Amino acid sequence: MSHVKCMIGPSILNSDLSNLYNESQNLLDSGADYLHLDVMDGTFVPNLTFGHPVVKCLRNKIPKAFFETHMMVQNPEQWIEPMADANVDQYTFHIEPVNNVPQVIRKIKESGMKVGLAIKPKTPVDVISEYIESADLVLIMTVEPGFGGQKFMQDMMPKVKWLRDNYPTLNIEVDGGVGANTIDDCAKAGANWIVSGTAVINCPDRKQAISTLKSSVQKYLS
Ligand SMILES: O=C(CO)[C@H](O)[C@H](O)COP(=O)(O)O
After folding, report:
1. Residue 175 appears among annotated catalytic residues
2. Strand locations in 20-81, DSSP E?
3. What is the second-level CATH architecture of the domain 7-221?
4. Which residue among 18, 79, 84, 149 is buried most deeply as judged by most CB within 10 Å?
């Protein structure tokens, strides 16, 4: 009997952002369990996307779905209140630029959102262990954050496996290059929250793409 649930969260990063509502609704109608919203500030990563004003507009049109914002930003503390005001469900931030991680975790919780802790490929997983008990999810990046469509880093799987071995009930998310060819590696290592961008967005049958990801994870969870 598995302790964790499989969740598939497409990243809308490489969708038609001029048509964000329809793209998001289409992904939910195709079986997505949540939406993974990539917020980039051009400083923490060399790319710029959107912030809380866009997320809030999307939330007004999609009141019920679970929204996770993946905060690829230099100062995650700055955006907690605006994202809570946009009714974001889970605020996932990178620990690398943060001096006081417990303080950021506390503020996210006080604002009513769930807490996700993210690490870049070069960050060792044990750096995060002292904070895991107070988090809802850990995100292991399987590409350097910044862009969709990059090659999956298989060598991140020991991090996922280490987390699963040590934290059987933890929600472990992977993000970057995840699709039909790489999902088995993620599932086998123990990931249960799956972000997939281009592999879903560019697939003519998004329902099928999401269902393939789900079946693979469920196979290893059961
Ligand atoms: O966080 C991200 C990039 O920083 C994206 O969520 C991720 O790369 C998704 O796209 P793809 O599945 O195409 O890699």
Report:
1. yes
2. 35-40, 67-72
3. Alpha-Beta Barrel (3.20)
4. 79
Q: Measured in angstroms, how far is the CA atom of residue 2 from the centroid of ligand 1?
A: 27
Output the six-digit token pair for 53: 């004003």
Q: Which of 78, 83, 71, 80 is nearest to 41 (CA)?
A: 71
Does residue 171 sit in helix, strand or coil? strand
User: Could you tell me if the CB of 70 is within 6 A of ligand 1?
Assistant: yes
Quote the distance between the C-alpha of residue 95 and its chain's center.
14
Q: What Rg do the C-alpha atoms of the chain give, in angstroms?
A: 16
Q: 31 in ligand 1 pocket by Cβ < 6 Å?
A: no
The encoded tokens of residue 22 equal 């329809």
Class of residue 38 by CB neighbours under 10 A (exposed 0-12, middle 13-18, buried 19+): buried
- Joined together, the tokens standing for residue 146 give 């910044």
**Digitized pLDDT (tens) for each residue of the chain, 222 residues in all:** 578 999 999 999 999 999 999 999 999 999 999 999 999 999 999 999 999 999 999 999 999 999 999 999 999 999 999 999 999 999 999 999 999 999 999 999 999 999 999 999 999 999 999 999 999 999 999 999 999 999 999 999 999 999 999 999 999 999 999 999 999 999 999 999 999 999 999 999 999 999 999 999 999 986
Burial of 110 (0-12, 13-18, 19+ CB in 10 A): exposed
